Amino acid sequence: MKYSNVLFDIDNTLINSADLIASLLKKGADREGVHMPLEEYRQRIGRPGQQILSEFGVRNWRRVLDRYMVGFDESMNELTYFKGIEPMLNALLAMNIKVGVVTSKDRVQFDKEIGHFPIIANMSMVTTADLTRNPKPSGDPIAYTLARFHLVREQTLYVGDSIFDMQAAKNAAVDFAVAAWGALPDDVFKDAKYRAETPNDIVEIVQ
């Protein structure tokens, strides 16, 4: 095998959720009197919500995130895996590949939002944003995962849909595959080693 470990981002890599997240953050910020175009939020998905809101000048970001959690929970039935994700994850597990997630969600968000996706919820390797001082695009969350789960850096692949995911992989010195099925079409992934057009491409990359 080319890789023994595959780590994934969650939003818009495994789950088709970025549009919902962007919409809920915008609605919350609008209530606080901060008006930014929806596309500005969408371009920043992959970073913690607190960072996005703070960058836009939302002072009461905690209140926005509290409302976001309620709205997200009410909209859970809208969310699905991308087509091909479940077969891809099952194929990797059948190959004895260690599979985990490194996400910009904190643990409370992860536990609340991922219960509807048991394959992710039952992963033994989960790194949430509150486990390191610096979230993505810092390499700290991936480096933390390597150390905590005793993963060999050269045998680890990180898969994500955003520029922030690519930067995190580069900063952690692990190979990166862009999940093109969830990525924004205009983003340029110059530091990606692989471009996966479909989830099954990840299985082929690992072999």
UniProtKB/TrEMBL annotation:
<keyword id="KW-0378">Hydrolase</keyword>
<dbReference type="InterPro" id="IPR050155">
    <property type="entry name" value="HAD-like_hydrolase_sf"/>
</dbReference>
<dbReference type="InterPro" id="IPR023214">
    <property type="entry name" value="HAD_sf"/>
</dbReference>
<dbReference type="GO" id="GO:0016787">
    <property type="term" value="F:hydrolase activity"/>
</dbReference>
<dbReference type="InterPro" id="IPR036412">
    <property type="entry name" value="HAD-like_sf"/>
</dbReference>
<dbReference type="InterPro" id="IPR041492">
    <property type="entry name" value="HAD_2"/>
</dbReference>
<protein>
    <submittedName>
        <fullName>HAD family hydrolase</fullName>
    </submittedName>
</protein>
<dbReference type="Pfam" id="PF13419">
    <property type="entry name" value="HAD_2"/>
</dbReference>
<dbReference type="InterPro" id="IPR023198">
    <property type="entry name" value="PGP-like_dom2"/>
</dbReference>
